[in-house]
Amino acid sequence: MSEGSTAESARGTADGSTTDACIVIFGASGDLTARKLLPALFHLWVDGYLSDRSPIVGAARRAKTDEEFRNEIFDNLKLISRSGAVDAAKWAEFSKRMFYRQLDLSRPEEFPAFGESLTELERAAGIANKRVFYMATTPDLFVPTIESLSQAKLIPGRNSEQVLRVVFEKPFGRDLDSARELGANLGRMLREDQIYRIDHYLGKETVQNLLLFRFGNAIFEPLFNRTHVDHVQITVAEAQGMEHGRGGYYDNSGALRDVLQNHVLQLLALVAMEAPSSFRGKEIRDEKVKVLDALAPAANSIDKWAVRGQYTSSLINGKQAAGYLQEDRIPPESRTETFAAMEVRIDNWRWAGVPFYLRTGKRMPRRVSEIAIQFKLPPLHLFKTVECEGDICELVEARPNQLVFRIQPSESISLTCSAKRPGMQYQIHPVNLDFAFDEGFKQLALPEAYERLLLDVLRGDSTLFMRNDELDAAWRLVTPVLNAWEGSPDRPEEYAAGTWGPAGSERLLASAGRKWRLP
């Protein structure tokens, strides 16, 4: 990157927003800060997107010096560096603006002194009137922390020229009522434009490419409708179980709350939304809300359109994998679902009658996230379809075209279509047209999701963050399912660890003559 482009990035954008800001991370002793947030800020600075002046302040209850804080982050950065090494000289320069302040978030009386310390750091750095607060804490501390900040006069008045942006990590409530209560409590002290509800999935390169691919290519956008699309599948699968002590958190959440209500429904909104009037945050989020508002169950009875499962012990690659009930911190009678699948519809003009199949789960055969759009078959089957494996070929049913967005791992976009098989007969052979980001852009490193999202916060770009009405619409779909599952005496349907979920998931599609795609 040239010096000119670096300086321009550090100054900010044409609308006056800049990357000069005091960045405060509450919960700075946690894993998220060490593994994601501070490495992301370091890479933003190395790439020229973060000002040399911006102080970065970690706040947590544990006693720690600035130097100890810097060394802990550096040790962790060396383990996770995207290039395999960390430039020690650059880190030494960057870490000069990193500070640590001991703060017990449950003690409001400690916040005034903390605010005075922030002001001193900002004055020394030449930064004024712009702060970013990142809530890297458990959700139960969201409202008390904001209340303490407000009482300490660290939240500017609604008509103040001071800029404050507050980032919140999921979960945003446990159901519709708690999400609305959280929104109302935060709304007493913060404006909606100050609240950034982060979903790291929306920072992934392929997710952002969804919008460009759809609305930047005239040959594809006309096909995204009920006339041409048979159905859409969205899969977010994880191969891991309850490693790293996540059992305690996960058992209070489950697959529906943890992934489907946020990640999966956000992907659905992006793939199904109408073209916005402009490529700006408000317009894009307005269109996403319209999709989420139009979501409807595919059947009247919940057990006909929603499926839950729980993995059991099984052999994976020759090793015995524990079942969910044998995992650390999991109660032996837990009925928490580790797999959730749904069939939903979008009741609007574009998508009427097109089923959207959604699934997410733990301990599946591989870690993969993708959106697969399956198109309808041609009205007449004029040609025979042949598939070959080695020298053995056989006639098979005609295969529909599929457009697949692979979000992780190995971000890619692929299109399955048909071509004539060489020979004297007119025979169709399925072929794939693939574009892999790591192959197509070999000279460009794909930024981590948190890098992109943190830069957007600094610039005041809310496009990739969830608005309150988006959150409300998502919970309206999911909450009746949660209530039905939690009120039922039945256990989740079992599936063996290392498989693609319970049999009920297959039945969800089989009733319409469809089946899940194998990623």
Summarize the structure.
This protein has 519 residues and is α/β, with parallel strands linked by helices.
Shape: globular
First CA to last CA: what distance?
37 Å
Beta percentage is 15-25%
For the largest beta-sheet, the strand count, sense and barrel status come to: 12 strands, mixed
CATH homologous superfamily (4th level) name of the largest domain = Dihydrodipicolinate Reductase, domain 2
Write down how many β-strands occur, each being a DSSP E stretch of 2 or more residues: 20
Helix proportion: 25-40%
Structural class by secondary-structure content: alpha/beta
Q: Which runs of at least 5 residues are low in confidence (pLDDT < 50)?
A: 1-18
The CATH architecture designation of the largest domain is 2-Layer Sandwich
Number of helices: 16
Mean pLDDT: 88
Radius of gyration, CA atoms, in whole angstroms? 25 Å
**CATH top level class name of the largest domain:** Alpha Beta
CATH topology of the largest domain: Dihydrodipicolinate Reductase, domain 2
Tell me the count of domains.
2
